[in-house]
Amino acid sequence: MYQPFANAAELPRAEAASYARGPDAPQDHGSDRPVQPDLAAHGAADLGQRFGLAEPPSAAHKNARNALILSMAVAQLSGARHVFYSRDRNWFAHHRSHLPACFTYRTVIWAAESLSAGSPFFVHDKASPGDPRTTPGRSRRSTLGFSPAITDPDLAELLESLRTEPVSGVLLRNAQKERKTFSPTALTRASNELLVRHRALLAKASITIDHPNLLATAPGLYRAGPRLVWTGQRALVRIFNGRLCRGGRFYRGFWQQLSKSERAALRINGEPSFEHDYACCHLRLLYAAAGKRFPFDLATGADPYLVPGAAREDRPLIKLAVLILINAKSEQQAVHALAGKLTECGSGYDLERAAALLAAVPRHLPDLAPFWCSNIGPALQFVDSEILRHGLEMLVDAGIVALPVHDSIIVPAQDGATLIGLMESTFRCGCANARRMGRVEGEAKSSGC
Question: What is the DSSP string of 260-274?
Fold first, then answer.
């Protein structure tokens, strides 16, 4: 009898890890983050003047330097100490099609050198051709960061430059997380229109955090040790992966960085907040795609992640195994991805245990057999992102401040009942879309696509 996951071939761990993180997870660059060239569009003022830096020779030079400074400020919000940039002409030539016109080799090198001259405020580590960080296929990376002379109020002032400025509302990225160009569609136009209206609604709202772990250190800025949260980070971006029917979730809202208990401490216009989610969202969508009834009665406490014969403490691993199974392309990738997660949990790189946990899922959920190791995850994310988009549109139409977190939404507590009813109705429509998706995926697989 065929035993799934019983004979996992070796696979490089770095490749397998990407399936554990999911298709939308950011790339791991250690403690550094990449410069964000698009931030050059924010603000007409020369931010270098705040630090007594040299006058830029042109508007392009000013904008490139602004992008570096704002990138460093934004990186602080993710716990990074530095941003990295390339000093390789070939990198700029290769990425020219999606870089702002001001972000060229000449302007960036000038901007970095001018920041280096402001040594009381900035730390600059230039990579040379012989630097050990230089590897085949990777451009030379230099880093820039703030020195301890930059205080939280300084950061708050810099971040204010980003609060109301326009951003690219819809992004399409390839497998390397690089931006791809695309022709606008009805979907992208509707998404952009929604994001503009949502941004305008949130700009008028007072959103604070009343949590013992987060200390307010400047207007809109909270600190928990090295971690910073800036409540002005409200402009959402919808990110698609490879195609405009893959991924599409909404990112970059500050509330998405918070833990569940911290989100519960949000106050919107002085009122307590309420969060409601789509319980077992992807499993329910998969059953809809398979044309099957969801067999678990969530109202009575039934839990699809409690597998008969498995220990209750394995529930988080079973849930992770489901996530990996719908994102992986093969059993080998799934086994190594879960083994990597076991290592992070302190259990060691245990392939045998990973295979056993993964094999328990198809036995427990046999109706979903066609979807395991099918890489259907990005398509599912598109369906759940469309469910959320329609729900968000209704809330914005009603003038309700709404903060989406992928498969949940936060609103003022007084609007909680409205949110629950709205989410249930949009989810039913999403299940119908999932059934159509299941037929399309099945036809593609049978035709070898």
Answer: HHHHHTEEETTEEEE
